[in-house]
Design brief:
The chain starts with 5 loop residues before the first strand and ends with a helix. The protein is 38% helix and 22% strand. It comes from Prauserella oleivorans. Keywords: ATP-binding, Kinase, Nucleotide-binding, Transferase.
Length: 310
């Protein structure tokens, strides 16, 4: 991984989904990878910026699938750990109706939840252009939480920017359990991404602009509060930016916020100015929403086509 690249870690899972209908009736399924951090890494790599993912997978076929798919996407996985004592987590997705999907996670006792501080490679963190974390990782286990905080300490000492997407998952922990941990991580971060509900979970209130200002008051230089189809508000280095959304037919909103983060961080790492970063992020989100799964993450040419057609 080059010094200009993204480094992220967390749980990546093998994903199996039907195109329509219930899993019990399917004769074939689509096979892929799930996990916020690995989705961001794929999105950054597709935009031509070096990206690396580290974490734990099981010594099993789903684990081999995760690593192979990430390698295929030019994501560096040489720092990943294969755990012989725990399985790779799974995600199963099917449809009750044509427009109503349901997703089930099988991650209890998974290799990803066994992530620990000793799995971190300090040299990789020190050499990164950005260390990206999410609020999912500390929710997985005590050791995973310790790994997240240890990584911020190493990055801080090396003056490596820390990016944090709050990504609150109520299936993993309660708001009360999450609040203090996420607030602590926000104070350690240089770049923060949150949606309006996540910012309010931390105890803030008001408009999206108010929420961005409150988060920025905790220390981050750059804060983006997303508002779904209404775009986003960014507080970047003391300047405010309204981020419009691109009108597209939403096929699959899952992963849209990860695509937004990937677009922003890819341009951040490329040295783009703030106004371009937020435009790229919004375009990536729109492109990802228009296709099922992470396959909708765009490359630079697809982004140019989208922005020209707007």
């Amino acid at each position: 991984m080059s010094a200009a690249g993204l480094l992220t870690f967390g749980e990546s899972m093998a994903a199996f989904s039907t195109t329509t209908g219930k899993l019990r009736h399917a004769e074939t399924v689509d096979v892929g990878v799930a996990g916020s951090e690995s989705t961001v890494a794929i999105g950054v790599a597709r935009l031509g910026v070096a990206a690396a993912w580290t974490g734990r997978v099981g010594a099993d076929e789903p684990g081999a699938l995760v690593l192979a798919r990430l390698r295929d996407e030019q994501v560096d996985v040489s720092g990943a750990v294969t755990d012989p004592e725990a399985p790779t987590g799974l995600v199963l997705k099917d449809f009750r109706t044509r427009d109503s999907a349901r997703t089930a996670f099988y991650r209890h006792g998974s290799a990803g939840a066994r992530l620990a501080p000793e799995d971190l490679c300090e040299d990789r963190i020190r050499d990164a252009g950005v260390l990206h974390l999410t609020g999912i990782t500390p929710a997985l286990s005590d050791t995973a939480a310790k790994a997240a905080f240890a990584a911020t300490e190493i990055a801080g000492e090396a003056r490596v920017p820390v990016s944090l997407a709050l990504n609150f998952r109520p299936a993993l922990w309660s708001p009360d359990d999450a609040r203090g941990v996420l607030l602590d991580l926000v104070t350690r971060a240089d770049i923060v991404f949150a949606d309006e509900a996540e910012a309010r979970l931390l105890g803030f209130d008001g408009t999206a602009e108010d929420l961005a200002a409150e988060l920025a008051s905790l220390g981050p230089d750059e804060v983006v509060v997303t508002r779904g189809p209404r775009g986003a508000v960014a507080e970047l280095g003391g300047s405010r930016y309204d981020v419009p959304s691109y009108p597209v037919r939403a096929v699959d909103p899952e992963g849209a916020d990860d695509a937004f983060v990937a677009g922003y961080l890819a341009d951040f790492l490329s040295g783009a100015p703030p106004d371009r970063r937020v435009r790229t992020a919004a375009a990536c989100r729109a492109a990802a929403m228009s296709v099922e799964g992470w396959t909708g993450l765009p490359d630079r040419e697809e982004l140019r086509q989208l922005t020209r057609s707007r």
